[in-house]
Amino acid sequence: MCQITRGSCKNSTIRIDYLAKISQQTILSTGNIKAGLPSFALPPFSINRTDVSNNTEWLSFPEICSELGAAIGLIPLIAILEQVAIAKAFGIIPS
After folding, report:
1. What's the CA gap between 22 and 39, in Å, rounded?
2. Cα 27 to Cα 24: distance, rounded to the nearest angstrom
3. Which pLDDT tens digit goes with each residue over 21-44?
4. Which of 33, 35, 40, 47 has the fewest CB neighbours in a 10 Å radius?
5. Is the pLDDT of residue 75 over 80?
6. Which residues make Cβ contacts (< 8 Å) with residue 1, sequence separation at least 6?
7. Cβ-proximal residues to 20 (8 Å cutoff; 6+ apart), any chain
8. CB-CB contact of 33 with 11 (8 Å)
9. Would you say the C-alpha torsion 53, 46, 70, 85 has a positive or negative sign?
């Protein structure tokens, strides 16, 4: 456990000095944090899904894509269009 008192923490780089100054108490973080970057790995292409009645179902990548449907392409397209609109709005030179 990392104990933070008045902005000092020995095990992590997270600083919560603002909260410590307000409450004047010791704040405990969630535990030890490993130093460095995580190891490089591909994301999981299959998941276990548990429904309401506690049945576990294994979904492969094609099944995940079929459940997402058109959203798998539309959401990134809408995000790109939004960024272009913002860039155009800020790119207008007032005369």
Report:
1. 37
2. 9
3. 555 666 666 777 788 898 898 887
4. 40
5. yes
6. 11, 28, 29, 31, 32
7. 4, 5, 6, 7, 26, 27
8. yes
9. positive
Q: At what angle do helices 71-91 and 61-68 cross, to 10 degrees?
A: 60
Q: What is the mean pLDDT of the chain?
A: 77
**Residue showing tokens 């973080």:** 29
Between CA 51 and CA 57 the distance in angstroms is 8
Q: CA 85: distance to chain centroid?
A: 25
CA distances from 25 to 6, 7, 17, 31, 52 (A): 8, 11, 11, 18, 41
Q: Could you give the CA distance from residue 48 to residue 56 in angstroms, rounded to a whole number?
A: 6
Residue with tokens 């009645």: 53
